[in-house]
Amino acid sequence: MSPIDEKLALILAEVIHRNAGEDEFRQAVGEVIGSLGPVVARHPHYLNRALIERLCEPERQIIFRVPWVDDAGQVRVNRGFRVQYNSALGPYKGGLRFHPSVNIGIIKFLGFEQTFKNALSGMLIGGGKGGSDFNPRGRSEGEVMRFCQSFMTELYRYLGEYTDVPAGDIGVGGREIGFMFGQYKRLTNRYEAGVLTGKGLAYGGSRARIEATGYGATYFVQNMLATKKQSFDGRRVVVSGAGNVAIYVMEKVAELGGRVIACSDSNGYVVDDKGIDLALVKEIKEVRRERIEEYVRMKGAGTHYVAGGSIWDVPCDVAMPSATQNELTGKDALALARGGAIAVGEGANMPCTSEAVRVFQDAGILFAPGKAANAGGVATSALEMQQNASRDSWTFEQTEARLAAVMKDIHDRCAQTASDYGAPGNYVLGANVSSFVRIAEAMDALGVI
């Protein structure tokens, strides 16, 4: 191990020591630090100025109580979070997640990833993330509204279009954004449209924002396949999840000629060899809000449902994990390799474990890391901020064209950076190094802060 490698190892050891129990955060930091050996060999001043250590520490962590009243009149209490991770490139930007699994370690991991993802987008936005351990599933609309209003009553004092701009994430869609924006407007007496993104079209939202993360991940994989003179056309594709990202991955894959044969939710997965009926999935998940097993009951012959199990046991050409972190393990990666997969694109945030990534790279499978592949959502959020600032509204076609161009630029920059550092085709290194250098140069210019 070279002295530089030893210094990076010491930095990582300190991060692990200082963040006990925050496994996802430590995993995300370890993945980035593991890519930086060639960078600090070329730019040793990054070590001298403690840029890496500063990047591994959030600028601000906010934790607060969220009291609300359910339909039975009982007072409930949840915990809210906002990690304003890094503002070297612009105001903090990143989604809000409402899910029982949310804790400070999860939010720090997401904020860290978001910082690098936002840097890759080319937009002038920093990184942040937030949310609550509130579970909207099974709650009435009135309960969701009261929770969102209480959540924003505390959070609003830390937000602003030039300070911190949240968006949606798991458990936070257009309904929740609307309730929170209404409360923000009520509390501040300002119509500051640029303070939240993912808004409805009626009050400042951007066309194609709902589709952006799923479409963007698919565009990235399309560009990645093109480097091998391949495409989605005729390919069998497996997509985990059945939420917003997964649905629009499936939609764009079908437009590009692929055939999605399986999708899932937290209870199990469905297989339809003729191709998943996306309209039916949207009906089940977005209208009825039911479990994916209903697909088999409603669709009938030629489909089957597997309770539990692993969707990655389904042989495919392209895998798009689009549900949640660490859902695809080393064992799953081996199953995909045996099944003939040629490419994997992360639609979710860090859905593949470190072991899974190593399996893909050792097997020569094209791998698109989430901080690059799923940057389409935040890129379109930044486009929404542009439209809000200019009191403008673009067509769906205009916005999608900008999204496609941004994703191609991210892909090409990752590929070029990987080649520049002697690792052609290594999109993990390309994404980590390209984003790190952009953030580090901005932090260096701003002094020791």
Describe the structure.
The chain is of the alpha/beta class. It has three domains: 3-55; 60-191, Rossmann fold, CATH 3.40.50.10860; 212-373, 3-Layer(aba) Sandwich (Rossmann fold), CATH 3.40.50. It is built from 18 helices and twelve strands. It has helices spanning 3-18, 23-33, 37-42, 45-48, 51-55, 104-120, 141-155, 174-188, 209-226, 244-255, 278-287, 294-299, 330-338, 354-362, 370-373, 376-389, 396-420, 427-445; strands at 60-69, 75-86, 92-98, 127-132, 164-168, 236-240, 259-265, 268-272, 303-307, 318-321, 343-345, 366-368. The strands form two sheets. The protein has a seven-stranded mixed beta sheet, sandwiched between helices. A hairpin with a 5-residue loop joins strand 1 and strand 2 (75-86). The longest helix is centred in the C-terminal third of the chain and has 25 residues, at 396-420. The protein is globular, with a radius of gyration of 21 Å.
